[in-house]
Amino acid sequence: MTGSNRATGFSKIPAFLDAIKFHESIFALPFAYVGMFLASNGLPSVSKFLWITLAMVGARTVGMVANRVIDRHIDKRNPRASSRHIPAGILRATDLIAPAVIAFIIFMFAAYKLNFLSFMLAPLAAGYLIFYPFTKRFTWTANLLLGWALAIAPSAAWIGITGKLSLEPIILSCAVACWAGSFDIIYHCQDVKFQKDQNLHSVAKKFGIARAFLIAKLLDTLAIGFLVIVGALCELNFPYFLSCVLAGCLLIYKYFLVKPDDLSKLGIAFMRINAFVSISILSGSLISLYLV
Asked: What domains can you pick out in the chain, each with its CATH number?
């Protein structure tokens, strides 16, 4: 990659947003909002909504930058990931680190504005997001640990509203962990050969692609079960449970798109299906809380 292809000046901003896949915030942010609305049992204040949104976006930015910077040498050797911004020479690692520092400051300030417990736990959450990318180097549970990185969101939002943690957000986080862990298992099935060559780890490498799909299906089933439990604990109305059914149907449809011997439609399954799952649960929660 020649220097002429490197982003400069203001062109670094869209390159940075593309590098961290800013649009993929749609995965975790809706579940953060579910936690926020359920904790509020109605509309939160404008300030709470603002600070929770800023905290979530800031934390996700820190996590994605950590992933891109820590894995930049691995990505360069991986044909599927070599076109990413750092290995392709479009951005330097320092181009991502500086905005990530700003994002961390925003995250910490937003947590401070929410309440004391949010502020005290924020460094632990950021530390976990930074630590996660290293796990693929030594444990096949890395896919599951990614799930827990996203699962921080709903419990963090609940704490941001109430200043404490209870059973409901823990169960909601379990649902997110299973759901996110499932799609990460499937997503990395396409890298098994590369993982073997580079001594990296995943569920698919450990158990084989066919068994990895079975584990992913089990996790998706558990995710829907946990979501139903959340609805029961929060005494939500039928629109929420209808959204759980819709989410379950979407997850079933995912396995018609991708199979152990055919990963060609993985992009559609990974992006669209999982985005629709999180949005459907958010929509069901809102309708249940405000319209019924």
From this structure: 11-287 (1.10.357.140)
- pLDDT higher than threshold 50 for residue 73: yes
Cα–Cα dist 206/224, whole Å: 25
Burial track 216-235 (b if 16+ CB lie within 10 A, e otherwise): bbebbebbbbbbbbbbeebe
Phi-psi region of 89 (alpha: psi -120 to 50; beta: other; left: phi over 0): left
DSSP 99-154: HHHHHHHHHHHHHHHH-HHHHHHHHHHHHHHHHGGGGGGT-TTHHHHHHHHHHHHH
Instruction: Identify the three-state secondary structure at position 6.
Output: coil
Confidence of residue 2 (pLDDT cuts 50, 70, 90): very low
Enter the tokens of residue 51. 């600070």
- Residue 264 host element (H or E): none
Q: Average pLDDT, whole number, for the chain?
A: 91
Q: Give tens-digit pLDDT for 100-142.
A: 999 999 999 999 999 999 999 999 999 999 999 999 999 999 9
